[in-house]
């Protein structure tokens, strides 16, 4: 399972076999509490969205930008949200699940949800027109890796990267079996790439998916009930799934 030896997945069945093996290696030893999954259509660095932002010239730092964004979010969501977050941890989780740039990185407790996020879009291409691979990162945290104190510690002053399990404050978090890593912002406004973090890098296993296999895996997942409608249980997800049912994506031949 070394990162040097690429693990390619061509079918959902192969993926389940790999995940089952990883459960036996990590979880059954009782060293790790569970496996977490993050699917990406492109193998890009594991850095939260706030860390990938290019700020405007008159903006001081990403730390200050994050606080300003969250305060505006807090002020504006009352008439828009089904649930009212009780604290900044849940507020940050809700913001993250609706696309706001935060210091959180999305993961799922569901292996199939992780795979779906890797293949749900048409694969990207490089400058030569070659299809790029997708990836599912499998993370095997230990119990020590979890943030347990969310009362005396505020996420906007978080000084150590941990796993964070929020309250179920949106249907999306519930449907996606959502869980997060909450990342430390360094003094130079940067983040340590999660896959290079000294505490976590040996607990991460990449499973790769060739771009040419996205469409067939997407179809297999839909047969198992994993699609836009189930992952996004709202009108947007329902409509997106209806569109997919009746119109092919550009990489689909069936």
Could you give the order of strands across the largest sheet?
1-7-4-2
Radius of gyration: 19 Å
Global outline: globular
Helix content: 25-40%
Distance between the termini: 33 Å
Structural class: alpha+beta
> What's the total helix number?
9
**Biggest sheet, open or closed, and with what strands and sense?**
4 strands, mixed
Q: Number of DSSP strands?
A: 7
Uncertain segments of ≥5 residues (pLDDT<50)? none
* Total domain count: 1
Average residue-wise pLDDT: 89
Beta-strand portion reads 5-15%
Q: What is the string of SSEs from the N terminus onward?
A: EHEHHHEHEEHEEHHH
Q: Explain this structure to me?
A:
This protein is of the alpha+beta class and 254 residues long. It has one domain. The protein is built from 9 helices and 7 strands; from the N terminus they run βαβαααβαββαββααα. The mean pLDDT is 89.
Give a topology summary.
Layout: E1 7-8, H1 12-27, E2 36-40, H2 49-52, H3 62-76, H4 88-97, E3 104-108, H5 111-119, E4 134-139, E5 162-164, H6 171-175, E6 178-182, E7 204-209, H7 214-223, H8 228-231, H9 235-246
Parallel strand pairs: 1-7
Antiparallel strand pairs: 2-4, 3-6, 4-7, 5-6
Helix pairs in contact: 5-7
